[in-house]
Amino acid sequence: MDETVRKINAEDIDPRFNWGRALPALGIMGVDFEERVDYRRLHRYRLGRARQALENSDLGALLVFDVNNIRYLTSTKIGEWERDKLCRWALLTRGGEPILWDFGSAAVHHKLYTPWLMPENCKAGLIGMRGTVNPAFGLMKRHAEEIAALIREAGVGDMPVGVDIIEPPMMFELGKAGLNIQDGQQVMLEAREIKNIDEIALLNRAAAMVDGAYHLIHEELRPGVRENDIVAMVNEFLYRNGSDDVEAINAISGERCNPHPHNFTDRMLRPGDQAFFDILQSFMGYRTCYYRTFNVGRATPAQHDAYKRAREWLDMAIDLIKPGVTTDRVCSVWPKAPEFGFPDEMSAFGLQFGHGLGLALHERPIISRVVSLSHPTEIKEGMVFALETYCPASDGYSAARIEEEVVVTDKGCKVITLFPAEELPISARY
Q: Same domain for 93 and 231?
């Protein structure tokens, strides 16, 4: 293995943390009187993990267009507007330093403000922006030949190149340039599955922001308030408290709870409504997926029962989480789809569910009866993921949805979503 990789592994890839200490809930600012997130250590760790995953694969290089992978490799971000544009990309070859092609003047900015990247490796680039620049104009061909030359210069031109997501014409041009394109997303997901203490601190800070958002919801949820009113209030709260992206707030109430639509509307809440919310946002790129259910003013026995069963299913899963347990064991304690009103597991996918959290909303592990029973994967120390359950009420329209985010420790797990959810919260009680 390359000497640089060995050095990075030794210094930065050990994921262990003193789990006997409380996880830090840090402020946003850096200070001189206590250690908070060390962003340069975070960069070394992420790049080291990617290098190690690349060495463990049969690939010679990784070419990434997924913004989460670009950030993981280069510690750069130019705003949420570029998330779906495919207008930036990065290359990592075995033994090489990351090379970044960015949008116009962002490349010039990086040369000034990202000293962890080699200035000559910060390049301006343009391939197509999802087809709006016609491939016939030749930009894809030009960049494909440039990328191929860099890969050959690195001495890995005879090895496959892993790509995560890509415009089909660009993939065709890479092939014409003599590159053997293979799936690189699995290699990047392997790298990203174990978090270091800086990533865990950022995920914990993101969850703490949503703790506060749910306190706001508990105070504001009352008859006459609309689902979109709650969405607006929470967006303001999160952005004022440092969120860099409020990806979505699902606000679902009353008769909309069953079946679950995964969105929000302008429906007005009424006394007795059951309502659940999912807050998906990020702090320094690290995401939350955090459901809570409330009732407005009062709750019926059927609504209480649905909440109790959703909580029990969730707690049974949490009790199993520790290193070495496989995902089939976790999902086996959840009900089968017909037991809560769905014809098959695919129709119920995402309702009794677990998924990794990091720079993306869905990372490893994925825990679901759709895939985990036949393809179990091992839970490892340092993973961070969300577990979520859903239970429809016997009244035919209400439902409860609860979700907790957990950090896998050496002996079990720590829950980092702390807004109280042991019993059904009732807002504007009367």
A: no
Q: How far, in Å, are 81, 105, 147, 166 from residue 133 at the CA level?
A: 18, 18, 19, 15
Helix ranges restricted to H, 130-289: 139-153, 168-176, 185-192, 197-220, 227-240
Min mean pLDDT across 26-40, 146-160, 354-368 is at 26-40
Q: Is the pTM of this model over 0.90?
A: yes
Cα distances from 378 to residues 259, 347, 375, in angstroms, run 32, 25, 10
Question: CB atoms < 10 A from the CB of 191, how many?
Answer: 22
pLDDT tier at 28, thresholds 50, 70, 90: confident
Helix/strand/coil (H, E, C) string of 212-251?
HHHHHHHHHCCCCCEHHHHHHHHHHHHHHCCCCEEEEEEE
Q: Are residues 282 and 360 in the same domain?
A: yes
Say whether both 221 and 322 belong to one domain.
yes
CA angle (405, 411, 414) in 5-degree steps: 25
**CA–CA dist 30, 334 (Å, integer):** 42
Q: d(Cα 278, Cα 236) in Å, to the nearest integer? A: 16
* Boundary (domain end) residue, out of 191, 209, 232: 191
For residue 177, give the CATH number of its domain. Answer: 3.40.350.10
CATH code at position 343: 3.90.230.10
Domain of residue 138, residue span: 3-191
